[in-house]
Amino acid sequence: MTHIFDIKETLKHAVLIVAAIIVILPFYVMSSYSLKSPSEIEANRGGFIGAQQLMEDDKCTAIKGDVEECYFRPVVYNYTMAFKKAPLLRYLLNGVFVTVSIFILQVLIALPCAYALAKLRFWGRELVFTMVLFCLLIPVHAIALPLYIMLAKLGLTNTYAALIIPWTISVFGIFLMRQFFMTVPDDLLDAARMDGMSEFSIIWKVMLPTAIPALMAFAIFSVVAHWNDYFWPRVVITGNRDLFTPPLGLREFKGDADGSAYGPMMATAMIIVAPLIVGFLLAQKRFIEGITLSGMK
Amino acid sequence: MRPGHSSSTPFWLTFPAVALMFLILILPIIIAAILSFTDYSLGNVGAEWVAFENYERMLTRRTYIKMIIATVTYVGVVVPASLILGLCAALLINSLKFGQAIYKTIYFLPVMAALLAMAIVWEFALHPTIGIVNEILEDGCTVPWVKFLLSFEFLPWTDPSASWFATGCSEGFPLWLGDRDYAIWTICFIGIWQGFGFNMVLYLAGLTSVPRELYHAAQVDGAKSAWDRFWLVTWPMLGPTNVFVVTITSIRSFQVFDTVEALTQGGPSKTTFVMMFAIYEKAIKENQIGLGAAITIVFLVLVLLMTLFQRQFVEKKVHYS
């Protein structure tokens, strides 16, 4: 059965390609618009990258007159305006700070608990584990309102703490790491105890290194979820722009946008989406592993 | 007791996690339950006990009935659609001779991208005047074979000029997000677009665990067509995967917020007023905390019931494999 032209296979590819085009369409629109000038966007001209003719920045010429420094290539204009119109750099740093803090705190809190549940016998262990299983059922976004009230009562809305605290406890992380620790042989622990290591140092010096692969997957899971999260920052950050995370910044941009800002706005969207997409393209397997972790509950 | 740790060690190891679980996950539910029976609002000193008034309002006011309709429509469309598309994509990709990796990568892209950003991009693409979608559709009107296909001229029993596409060509294509007949479906579409790649990956993983011999056995038993083999072998073997996929997709779709907040604000005429957006708008923006708490409780009960129902289902199905 050696067909040079396999009809069945070709049909399958045809279907998959049509679907792929629909999936890619917004990515195409986003990258294309981030390169083109406003007039090209509005008239839908210029193909993917546009003609890249020099364009005039109206606001600049209004102040400085018709000088050379007020003319830009659209791509340069869009990407510089993305950073100038709003403090995008600050938003990005906020995003990094919040996602990294959340991940570190999640690990600091979940790992010892997971270790105790997996490897120590103590009174109340079953109770703690039942609590973990119960809490797995609670979607944190759903209890946003009471959490918001609690934070407001503590005077913590519009602070970094409000962005981070509700996510410090990852029940899923505890569950995942417990399952992993169960597979670590007891001999390893006994040897460490013989050497006089305390339980705390066993966790960080023996268990943590063995858990690196699982932890990597969890890191990707956590970082992707919180970098992309829009709902929670929207709830707790009401006015203070200094605390905006990247999605909030983009949303604000959309709120003020007029026709001329489409290009810079799409450039902002590109900048926000790019880190994770690039990461994914470079380390697909790890990313897919991490993101689908929640499917293993 | 093993040597090396005193009896208080396990306590100190688990205490931070247990305390936070209580403060962050359990206490808020209790607070929401209590507040849902009051007319509490932030900034006011006291609160009146109003018993079931908030819940009553939810069941009688048009706005909240629309909220339930919007939420159920969204979940009812997005869950089956992204499930079926995810499964079809997985089956097709799995049967390919080459090019599996590239499709997998492409279909997974939307899962990685910030939904808010992509929602805004979709809004551009669907823009009635400068959007690429309506422009492509309008261009299609002048291409005979596109028109032939999309207005179903090849089906003799239909009237091509009355088809959706032909109407669009003559009277203009919809406003999508601004049209009350289309807004919720457009929001659903974005949800499906974003989520089916995730399901595809789970199904691909599920498919690799189906033993090859079973297919041969099925063939020997007379399951001649691929269709028969699918229902005899693949589908039952995917039981556990199905349960995961349904659970996760439904919990996620219940929580849809980003697209609605950024694109429709619940409108037009509350057709996209989903529950998470209702909680946000009523309780956090308008400070009607009691009412928001009642919606929160209903929401939690719905999600919990669904999860428990599915767990029940798993118990029965998982033992299959």
Strand fraction of chain A equals: under 5%
| Alpha carbon gap, first and last residue of chain A | 43 Å
Task: Let me know the number of strands of chain A.
Answer: 2
Q: Shape of chain A, please?
A: globular
Q: Which labels suit this protein?
A:
heterodimer; A: mainly alpha; 2 strands; globular; B: 321 residues; mainly alpha; 0% strand
In short:
The complex is a heterodimer of chains A (297) and B (321). By secondary structure, chain A is mainly alpha-helical. Helix content of chain A is 69%, strand content 1%.
Tell me about this structure:
The complex is a heterodimer of chains A (297) and B (321). Chain A has 297 residues and is mostly helical. Chain A has helices at 7-33, 38-43, 58-64, 74-85, 88-119, 125-135, 144-153, 160-164, 171-182, 186-194, 199-210, 212-228, 231-236, 246-256, 262-282, 284-291; strands spanning 55-56, 71-72. In chain A, strands 1-2 form a two-stranded antiparallel sheet. The radius of gyration of chain A is 25 Å and the shape is globular. Chain A starts with 6 loop residues before the first helix and ends in a 6-residue tail after the last helix. With 321 residues, chain B is mainly alpha-helical. Helix content of chain B is 71%, strand content 0%. The longest helix of chain B has 33 residues, at 62-94. At the A-B interface, helix 1, helix 5, helix 6, helix 7 and helix 12 of A face helix 1, helix 3, helix 4, helix 5 and helix 6 of B.
Task: Furnish the topology, listing elements before pairings.
The complex is a heterodimer of chains A (297) and B (321).
Chain A: H1 7-33, H2 38-43, E1 55-56, H3 58-64, E2 71-72, H4 74-85, H5 88-119, H6 125-135, H7 144-153, H8 160-164, H9 171-182, H10 186-194, H11 199-210, H12 212-228, H13 231-236, H14 246-256, H15 262-282, H16 284-291
Antiparallel strand pairs in A: 1-2
Chain B: H1 9-35, H2 53-60, H3 62-94, H4 100-112, H5 115-125, H6 132-141, H7 144-150, H8 164-171, H9 183-208, H10 212-220, H11 226-237, H12 239-254, H13 258-264, H14 275-285, H15 289-318
